Amino acid sequence: MSNETEQETPATVGGDGDVLKSSTVPVQQQQQQQQYHHHHHHHIMSTSVEEVDEQVLEMTQSTATVNNSNSQVQKSYKNLHEFSEEMLETEKAGLVERVYDLERQVLEHKDEIVCLKSTLADVLRRLATIDNSYENSTSGSGRGGTGTPAGMGGGMSAGVGAHHAASDNVSGTVQTNSLSSKSFRFSRNTLTRLNSTVEEKRFGRVPSRVTSSPSRMKPNLAQKAIHYSNGSLHSDSMSSHSISPAPSPSPRQPNAATPVNSHHALLSSSGMGKRWSSTGDFISTPGSPSGTGSSGSMSRFSAKSLLNLSGNSSRQGQSHPYVQRKNEDDEYVKLYISGRPIVIHIPEAQLSTYELTKVQPAPNRRLRLDWAYGYRGKDCRSNLYQLPTGEMVYFVAAVVILYNMDEHTQRHYLGHTDDVKSLAVHPNKLLVASGQCGGHEGRESLPHILIWNSVSLATLNMIGCGEFTGAINCLSFSRADSGSILAAIDDSPDKIISIWDWQKKDGGRKITETKCSVDTVVAVEFHPLDKGQIITIGKNHIAFWSLDQNGMLYKRMGVFESFEKPKYVTAISFTQTGDVVTGDSSGNLAVWKRGTNVISRFLKKVHEGPVFTICALRNGGFVTGGKDGLLLLFDDALHMKAEQIVEAHFGAVRVVAQGKGSQLLIGTTKNCILSGDFTLSLVPIVMGHTDILWSLATHPQVAQFVTGGRDRLLQLWDSLSHSVVWSKDIGEPIHSVQIANGGDAIVAGGVGGRWSVFDIVTRELLATYTDGQEVIQCLQFSPDGNLLAVGSKDNCIYIYQCTKVAHRFSKIGKCSGHSSFISHLDWSKDSQILRSNSGDYEILYWNPTLCRQITSQSTVKNLEWATQNCSVSFETIGIWPENFDGTDINSVCKDGEEQFLVCADDFGKIRLFSFPASQPKSLSHSYKGHSSHVTSVQFMHDGVRLLSAGGMDTSVLQWRVV
After folding, report:
1. Furthest C-alpha separation in the chain
2. Which of 5, 459, 572, 919 has its CA 20 to 30 A from that of 20?
3. Are 887 and 375 in contact (CB under 8 A)?
4. SS3 569
């Protein structure tokens, strides 16, 4: 045996896949082979690691490259995303700009359409007025007494229809066709039918008729019968220069077969049966409607019985609630005022015919408001607007005035019963809302809002009567939804904001109300672009309100953050993009981004003192006005471009409105309205008093008058041009004025017993006199111009001799005998006797040259008096209403021909009587326009025009007898 061991080696698989046969190999050889294989394997493994390392390196490099690529891709994506976002933002901004531009264009187009509608309506109204004037003149001259007397009927029904023709497309077409086919002649029936249809469709009722300018025609006896059958002692007529809302029912002559009752029923059924009396009816039965009598009462008080009503009295013991005559042989009656009997002697010419139970008929003529002097800018805001018809609308007292500056004409809305405190114009520029404070008597005197038509002056709706406790001092129509709702601020202690669906008939529908602020609210405005968004401003706040679909109000208070918080936010306006711009009591302007309650821009100390108004101009710019009297012009980016100063004697800037073109209308705190722009000087177009207006006197020869008040202003006016001739601050309150008979001097009574004489042309102070230490209450020249009587609050009358020099007066003496202040003075026509009334309703007679009282009634009871200033006299027994206070009647006067007697009372009313009003039951026509006690009434020298001075309302109203 060999030492070498043979071993079997199993079969192996080759690299090529063949099976190798097993063989027997010596051990040594096997070991060598193993060593060889191990070395070879190591070499192979070394080679593989290097390759792997290289591959790993390559893979690492590839990964880095991939990572690089990924980051580049991510960066590209990021850049692309940023670029996309930038593009989207740019596109969005462009889109918003285009939307704003479209909104602006739509608003401009709406304004143009509104202007066209308003112009058409105004043209139709004017043509209808011409048509009515022509028909009235034809009926007056050609038809005898069969036509409607001008001013006594519903001539301006066509005016109402004309407006609705313009505001309704269908009606507008009909009216235009009617115009072209009839050559500017209208069918009143057609226009009235159109008006009725539109009104019934929109408001469920036909509005009150309006009347055209009346001509001076007298109604016949039948017309009197209809008028008096109303049964009122004092009619409540509304009057206007052209057309007026809801006038008193003016009588028309019925057909011969038409009974008085049926005609009266016709008036009632057509909404004309308005109660004429403010003091009570003496013929209507308890079961009959106000102002209308039952058939029995109507038949009982026929025209004949009214003209000569003797009642059931025997010839003895005639009596009346406040006038008594015990026996028919008594030569006097007793007039009881505040329980005190005043003995008034009856003139001999009337002793045999005078009976207390007779009724004095009202005069055949009436009064029509011709012009309203004054403006309320002292304590009211947002009360001056330009209408598309070319008229500006503003208010004073209880009158809303529509004034056309180019034509120098006024129209008047007389639907209010007391002070108008707020005004808002509907987005269609045709409708107006006006709010008033509480009045003196009746439901209609409660604070309320009236919606009315600026073309026809017809009242469309009365809002909130009985719902408000204070005056309505702020109003705003919604703008983003075409004015369908109205916001109002009740100036009650809780400052209630209420939202109204004003189009609902019979008083509108209150959507919601809530407490607005514990402090004063000075303005409320709807956002012009965002529906249901409302902003209120006032003391210590600006509030952003949202009105949801369920009628709920939500409030967000404005946040001032780091900006100075003002004591008052005083003015508000909007940019064309919908941002809110406010002004405050510190003179700052703030811009509040649309939809937010934070300030985005703040302009500090633009004005010295409060900013009272911000007016947004049509070109996107703004005009601001403030207490400093400055007007500042800004562009749409709020960069200041120009300034204008308002002279100090006109007052601070209260409100600015844009007029025609670049013209601005500026209302001031001294009750003036100016017109102008930033290139021309400002011209006053309306002027007035600023404090209680006490006195009024008319020129004896020309159409001028003078006024004086507690504001220390003495002003001479021209009643034909309706303007102030001159104005002078005399340095003390004025309580009485009078113009000398020669018309060359004005005498003004002040306080402390002083009275002064001024030249009527140069307004120069000529002389000053002093009598006593009390207020000079009244002044009166004798008819011959030789004597002047000065009535003082010290109960005395001072008599002066007039010299040939206008300002030289020589004192004759003092008349003493009254137990209260002197209130009124009258001279006899022969200038020999003076009579006087006092504060305790006494009536005394005087010999002026001797300064002695005349006690013999036979000397004075048959005298004729040059004037009728005394409110307690035989001629004025009928002016005192039942249940009156003696202080109710402030002033009376008669015309030169002694046809009319006019009295002014504490309730803002003017009443027109026939002269003399010596019967306790004297019928009259009553007119409203003043909102305060009327301190004085005076006829002009021609007897056709009448002037009345309001006390607290600071207005002067000029009336015409028609």
Report:
1. 198
2. 5
3. no
4. strand
Q: What three-state secondary structure class fits 83?
A: helix
278: nearest Cα among 881, 740, 876, 746: 881
Task: Give CA separation, 396 vs 353, 472, 682, 933, in Å.
Answer: 46, 15, 22, 14
Query: What SS3 state is found at 48?
Result: helix
Map residue 172 onto helix, strand or coil.
helix
Per-residue pLDDT at 961? 95
Structure tokens at 309: 């009503």
Per residue in 684-721, pLDDT (tens digit) is: 999 999 999 999 999 999 999 999 999 999 999 999 99
**Distance (Å, whole) CA 482 – CA 531:** 10
Which own/partner pairs from 512-519 qualify as long-range (CB within 8 Å, at least 24 positions apart)?
Answer: 512/547, 512/551, 512/552, 512/553, 514/553, 516/489, 516/543, 517/541, 517/543, 518/494, 519/495
pLDDT in tens, 825-862: 999 999 999 999 999 999 999 999 999 999 998 889 99
Spatial separation of the C-alpha atoms in residues 726 and 728, rounded to whole Å: 7
Distance CA 810, CA 819 (A): 26
> What letter would DSSP give residue 917?
-
Length in residues, the chain: 962
Q: How far is CA 886 from CA 266, 533, 841, in A?
A: 39, 52, 7
Measured CA to CA, the distance from residue 346 to residue 422 in angstroms comes to 50
DSSP 348: G
Higher pLDDT, 893 or 182: 893
Report the pLDDT averaged over residues 7-11: 40
Place of tokens 């007793």: 334
Cα 818 to Cα 400, 842, 844, 891: the distances in Å are 43, 7, 8, 19
pLDDT tens digits for range 776-816 = 999 999 999 999 999 999 999 999 999 888 789 999 999 99
Residue 267 pLDDT grade (very low, low, confident, very high; cuts 50, 70, 90): very low
Contact criterion met (CB below 8 Å) for 750 and 735: yes
Q: Look up residue 785 and give its DSSP letter.
A: S
Q: How far is Cα 238 from Cα 248, in angstroms, rounded to an integer? A: 6
- Burial of residue 877 (CB within 10 Å: 0-12, 13-18, 19+) is buried
Q: Residue 80: what are its φ and ψ, rounded to 5°?
A: -65, -40
DSSP letters, 582-625, are EEETTS-EEEE-TT-SBEEEEE--SSSS-EEEEEE-TTS-EEEE
Phi, psi of 298, deg, nearest 5: -65, -40
CB 913 within 8 A of CB 363: yes
Find out whether the peptide bond into 916 is cis, omega within 30 degrees of 0: yes
Can you tell me the mean pLDDT for 589-600?
94
Strands 340-345 and 673-676: unpaired
Token representation of residue 1:
């045996």
DSSP letters spanning 377-432? -SS--S--EE-TTSEEEEEETTEEEEEETTTTEEEEE---SS-EEEEEE-TTSSEE
Return the SS3 of 40: helix
Distance in angstroms (rounded) separating the CA atoms of residues 78 and 84: 10
Confidence (pLDDT) at 133:
65
Cβ neighbours of 43 (radius 10 Å)? 10
Name the strand (E) or helix (H) holding 264.
Answer: helix 260-269
End-to-end Cα, the chain, rounded Å: 171
Mean pLDDT of the 164-173 span: 39
CA distance 665 to 404: 13
Angle at 551 between CA 549 and CA 557, to 5 degrees: 100
Residues 6+ apart with CB under 8 A from 1: none
Check: CB of residue 632 under 8 Å from CB of residue 623: yes
Q: Mean pLDDT, to the nearest integer, of 886-902? A: 92
Angle, alpha carbons 69-72-75 (nearest 5°): 150
User: What are the tens digits of pLDDT across the range 501-555?
Assistant: 999 988 899 999 999 888 899 999 999 999 999 999 999 999 999 999 888 999 9
Q: How many CB atoms lie within 10 A of CB 811?
A: 13
Joined tokens for residue 850: 């001797």
